[in-house]
């Protein structure tokens, strides 16, 4: 009866942990903006890309598209609409599944208390919550790595005993490991270490028994052959990408050691001084379990600790070599999260066992108290993860503000092409998203100075041609200036600025639990978003300052395009309105000058007063109209396509509009 009561109590606590894991992964799941490569998941889903189509020509040489195809299949099977929530939903469910996998892996080996602690750790650890709330590879890496560890354990256990290999167990391990290997290449060295540990254990245990050693040698030899056959296309792509990858800097031992030391704090409690002190609790608990724990858990703990250490060394060594000195991202260490979670749970339970053995204290009460402290340490960063508006750029805040405050289709300018790509999932309907330069941040000061000067001139040109444009700035200009390097501030072109601060990202940065380097950039880059813009009265003042007191503004009906030479053009389709702002107090009679080039055939344009001009196909032409009178304030001129009907619309690319 008591056994049944404990069983039901364990199941009840485990169910509560699963519910908590589901809540922190599903609540406000669609709030955060997509970032970096994660935007490709959204774009492929929105484009209706086929589940198998993505395998034929995957654009990334150093990745495997299994998780992306799983997401596409999930959306198609359940016929879900494509939005910020549904694209992330499969990965949140995968994250919840990892909690269950760790629980059932730990329970028969370390006991029910440790199993509940491992599930609790996986449910609330900010590192795993972060990975589970984004559409990317690493939620799948954690789950499949945990499955591979679960499947590997009975195979390894048999190798340490005088027993023949179990082909069924080997098959499960192969299946789980190859599945994990298709989620991300960071799993490969982890799988390799498991195979080496297994081979060494089998040889050491069975070297005196030739028949048993021969039986073990068959699946051990078959393992690398199977891996080579199944993963050969991706192995080739990996080394191709490594050759094409530009070198960073020479990898130094100190930096490598710092990467090793930084893994556990980021995955557990963070880098705050009190979090590092608290980390000593599970560490000391693991040490006690290894040396003084019960006969049941001690060998399992020693093996897991040894396996984790070798896996960490192998993973970091491989990425140091193939990464050519670039900083290691903590997301690459996702295959190590499962053993870290289990070891942390073992350490917490170890303290309970020690106090029970030495002071006759109820170890369950101690374990619960220590677990409560862990959850208390996680509350602030977990809350920040749930409410995170961007990683780290707040694209959706820009979208909402723009929709509420912008006029007609308006150019929305960002600094570089990568930011524009990242922002493409949150582009307002009224915006034309464009960028100033293809380059991102430059490490060389001279290159950075040239890029800054180029961006300033490009923005000046944009404001001359599109005076109503807005500029979204994510850079921390105060931190960009180095000795002998000039900088610039976009405010010189705009009268107003609205500022959004990503306080949740700053919280994750301060606690040291954010797994991506974007959170630890120079100054507040990406954390603070500034939208620079001009109001109608500012444009009126600018018009008054012009020699003609006139300022052309694109109204309804226009669209925009950036050509390969990085120039931005306004496009006239069949009909559009030009708003001419007269900032003076007297009417102005001037000639309207339009420079444009049509595509797909000649294009005849008429104005609202009946004037007409024909632009020749693919030839830059200039039309200077007869004098037109513009009254003070806003005037409207309608441009209409009067070309002969051809069944299609021939775009007219406007290079400039001025007054003579």
Automatic annotation (TrEMBL):
GO terms for cellular component: plasma membrane. GO terms for biological process: lipopolysaccharide biosynthetic process; response to iron(III) ion. Keywords: Cell membrane, Glycosyltransferase, Membrane, Transferase, Transmembrane, Transmembrane helix. It comes from the Bacteria. Pfam families: PMT_2. The chain crosses the membrane at residues 85-106, 113-130, 136-157, 169-191, 220-239, 251-267, 273-291, 303-322, 334-353, 365-384. It is a multi-pass membrane protein. It is found in: Cell membrane. Its main location: membrane. GO terms for molecular function: pentosyltransferase activity. Residues 70-235 form the Glycosyltransferase RgtA/B/C/D-like domain. This is Putative membrane protein. It comes from Kiritimatiella glycovorans.
């Amino acid at each position: 009866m008591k056994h049944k009561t404990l069983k039901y109590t364990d199941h009840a606590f485990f169910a509560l942990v699963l519910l908590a894991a589901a809540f922190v992964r599903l609540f406000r799941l669609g709030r955060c903006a997509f970032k970096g490569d994660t935007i490709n998941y959204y774009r492929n889903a929105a484009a209706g890309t086929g589940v198998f189509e993505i395998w034929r020509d995957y654009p990334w040489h150093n990745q495997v598209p299994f998780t992306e195809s799983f997401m596409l299949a999930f959306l198609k099977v359940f016929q879900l609409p494509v939005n910020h929530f549904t694209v992330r939903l499969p990965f949140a469910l995968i994250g919840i599944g990892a909690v269950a996998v760790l629980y059932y892996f730990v329970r028969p080996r370390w006991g029910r208390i440790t199993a509940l602690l491992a599930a609790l750790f996986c449910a609330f650890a900010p590192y795993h919550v972060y990975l589970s709330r984004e559409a990317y590879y690493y939620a799948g890496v954690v789950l499949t790595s945990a499955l591979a560890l679960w499947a590997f354990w009975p195979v390894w256990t048999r190798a340490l005993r005088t027993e023949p290999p179990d082909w069924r167990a080997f098959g499960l391990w192969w299946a789980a490991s190859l599945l994990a290997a298709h989620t991300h290449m960071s799993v490969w060295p982890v799988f390799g270490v498991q195979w080496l540990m297994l081979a060494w254990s089998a040889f050491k245990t069975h070297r005196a028994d030739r028949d048993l050693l021969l039986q073990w040698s068959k699946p051990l030899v078959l393992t690398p052959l199977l891996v080579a056959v199944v993963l050969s296309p991706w192995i080739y792509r990996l080394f191709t990408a490594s050759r094409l990858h530009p070198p960073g800097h020479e990898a130094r031992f100190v930096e490598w050691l710092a990467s090793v030391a930084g893994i556990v704090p980021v995955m557990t409690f963070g880098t705050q001084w009190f979090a590092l002190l608290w980390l000593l609790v599970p560490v000391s608990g693991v040490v006690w379990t290894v040396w003084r724990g019960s006969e049941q858990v001690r060998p399992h703990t020693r093996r897991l600790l040894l396996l984790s250490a070798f896996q960490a060394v192998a993973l970091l060594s491989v990425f140091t070599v193939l990464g050519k000195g670039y900083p290691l991202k903590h997301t690459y260490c996702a295959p190590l999260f499962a053993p870290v979670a289990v070891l942390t749970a073992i350490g917490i339970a170890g303290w309970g066992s020690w106090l029970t053995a030495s002071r006759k204290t109820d170890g369950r009460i101690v374990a619960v108290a220590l677990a409560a402290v862990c959850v208390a340490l996680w509350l602030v960063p977990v809350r920040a993860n749930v409410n995170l508006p961007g990683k780290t750029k707040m694209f959706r805040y820009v979208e909402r503000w723009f929709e509420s405050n912008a006029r007609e289709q308006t150019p929305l300018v960002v600094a570089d092409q990568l930011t524009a790509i990242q922002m493409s999932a949150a582009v307002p309907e009224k915006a034309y998203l464009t960028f100033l330069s293809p380059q991102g941040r430059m490490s060389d000061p001279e290159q950075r100075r040239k890029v800054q000067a180029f961006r300033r001139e490009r923005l000046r040109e944009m404001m001359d041609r599109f005076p109503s444009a807005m500029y979204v700035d994510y850079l921390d200009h105060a931190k960009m200036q180095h000795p002998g390097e000039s900088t610039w501030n976009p405010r010189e072109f705009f009268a107003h600025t609205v500022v959004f601060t990503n306080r949740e990202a700053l919280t994750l940065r301060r606690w040291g639990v954010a797994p991506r380097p974007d959170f630890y950039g120079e100054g507040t880059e990406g954390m603070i978003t500034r939208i620079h813009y001009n109001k109608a009265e500012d444009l009126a003042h600018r018009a008054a300052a012009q020699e003609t007191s006139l300022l052309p503004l694109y109204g309804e009906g226009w669209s925009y395009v950036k050509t390969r030479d990085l120039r931005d053009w306004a496009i006239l389709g069949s009909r559009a309105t030009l708003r001419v702002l007269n900032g003076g107090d007297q009417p102005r009679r001037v000639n309207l000058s339009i420079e444009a080039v049509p595509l797909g055939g000649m294009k005849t344009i008429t104005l609202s007063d009946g004037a007409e001009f024909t632009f020749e196909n693919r030839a830059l032409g200039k039309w200077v109209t007869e004098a037109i009178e513009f009254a003070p304030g806003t005037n409207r001129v309608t441009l209409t396509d009067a070309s002969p009907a051809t069944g299609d619309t021939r775009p007219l690319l406007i290079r400039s509009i001025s007054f003579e």
